Amino acid sequence: MEILIRPTPEAVATQAADIIAGYVQHGSVLGLATGSTPIATYQELIRRHQQEGLSFAGCKVFMLDEYLGLDPQHEQSYARTIRREFTEHLDINDADVFSPSGNSGDPLAAAADYERHITSEHVAIQLLGIGSNGHIGFNEPTSSLNSVTRLKTLHPQTIRDNARFFDTPDEVPTHVLTQGLATIRRAGHLLLVATGASKAAAIAATVEGPLSSMCPASTLQLHPHATVLIDEEAASQLTFREYYQYADQNKPAFQGY
Ligand code: PGA
């Protein structure tokens, strides 16, 4: 696993934009995430599109997850959120932005359809946030490391965490459709971003803890190309950081490394 520690959330966003931009070309398939952490990365990519000519034409986007019971037009649906915060500001075809169907009358079939669709493509890079309990996507602790896209019940803490986006806590959906951990691991490169002290324990468990369904993000340990990009606060519980910084500053100068 590559561990990149940057001084500030802004520096994390700049580096994340650098990494993602490296995959953006006609025909690329990008896996994206909602949540607060990636917003600064999206703003930086929008700036590069508007000011530096970074083109997303011909790219496809697959989202990690969606609330069950929300119409795609609902302001807090993740289908709507990614458009408002990112893809509407780019030259990407709106019909090429895909999410699990949160308002299907048959959520189990919708999950299976999404799994079939995403596994028919090659996701070049999957951007991930992390919950303070170690979830990625909406794979809460105890999610099978071999899970695929499916219906999940949210942890009450996740519902409380997400209540800030809704008028009242009662409006937060209790169930979701989410890519599974095996689905996520199919992407060519996993890029997990985290900032702030509230993520420090989850980051330490992800990077230095045992591979465990109690920390779903530890599934990155199984992936041949995973990058954990964090600020100083999120890195504050890592014990092996001298090595991470040394490796970061002494990258071999081989082509393609
Ligand atoms: P956050 O959410 O980026 O808003 O902290 C991350 C997550 O819960 O996956």
From TrEMBL:
<protein>
    <submittedName>
        <fullName>Glucosamine-6-phosphate deaminase</fullName>
    </submittedName>
</protein>
<keyword id="KW-0378">Hydrolase</keyword>
<dbReference type="InterPro" id="IPR037171">
    <property type="entry name" value="NagB/RpiA_transferase-like"/>
</dbReference>
<dbReference type="InterPro" id="IPR018321">
    <property type="entry name" value="Glucosamine6P_isomerase_CS"/>
</dbReference>
<dbReference type="InterPro" id="IPR006148">
    <property type="entry name" value="Glc/Gal-6P_isomerase"/>
</dbReference>
<dbReference type="Pfam" id="PF01182">
    <property type="entry name" value="Glucosamine_iso"/>
</dbReference>
<keyword id="KW-0119">Carbohydrate metabolism</keyword>
<dbReference type="InterPro" id="IPR004547">
    <property type="entry name" value="Glucosamine6P_isomerase"/>
</dbReference>
<feature type="domain" description="Glucosamine/galactosamine-6-phosphate isomerase">
    <location>
        <begin position="14"/>
        <end position="221"/>
    </location>
</feature>
